[in-house]
Amino acid sequence: MENVLLSVRNMSIHRGKEEIVRSSSFSVYKGAITALSGESGSGKSMTALAFAGLLPQGFSASGSIVFEGQDLLSSDMDMGNIRGRGIMLMLQSAAEALNPVYTIGHQIKTVLRINGLECSDEAVLGLLSDAGIADAFDKYPYELSGGMRQRALAAFAMAPEPRLLIADEITSSLDDENAHMIMDLVMQMAMARESSVLMITHDLALASQYASRIIVMHGGQTVEEGDAYDVIHSPKHPYTELLLRSSELVQDQSGKLFSIKGHMPRPCDEVIGCSFASRCPYCIEDCSRPMDIRFSGSHSWRCIRA
Questions:
Q1: 3 state SS of 282
Q2: What class does CATH assign to 4-80+195-301?
């Protein structure tokens, strides 16, 4: 356990009586790139917001989120001491994350100052240079292209040298070429600062290119976790298997791209067994009953078949 940076155990997120995340458990390891994957609505982004203590009003988390030995859900936890140098959240929309009325240089200076780090022009220029946009110091966000704004956001997120960077769908608004450029940039900046990364993505194909470990969520429930090679080449949960097929952009005989049929359970639905049961082509009666997580080494899954 000494190599575990973040340990999540039986974490649930509620909005009133609705359950958004359902008793999820997984770990993020020091110095590793971990991917949290699943379709839109699976609970990935809500999970990330819970880690940063930024759940919207009306939402609450229960269970255990332990970061560097501290339970982030403890009533006396001051998240102001965790955000920044501890956990930094890089959002998918740079246009919304960056303040339109301040220059890029001013905003990064503010991050450095808040975290007690050197906030000179030289320090900011060094970060922007690492991000490949040294000339953005005096520019406002609206003066930059979408790809340049993502680079500015990468510099912003890496400024405090966080121990854990959460990158939430940071390539969703970019084309393939720019998406890979941004992912390469963020991973290089994280490695240079010895930051661990939790990348949140719906694309398992993208996750497999960068992550050493992959966690798969469906319907707010963790359904599979393991080393990236094992999850990609030997998926144990049917949802992971079908999610991989949908990521491959393979057309069927009709010329249509593969898509997973059905819908995820709604937050108001009671889920007793597997959250994927209503969509699973292998579903049997036992799938609607409570089930334990199965293990094979560091690979775990929530399915009675494998």
A1: coil
A2: alpha beta
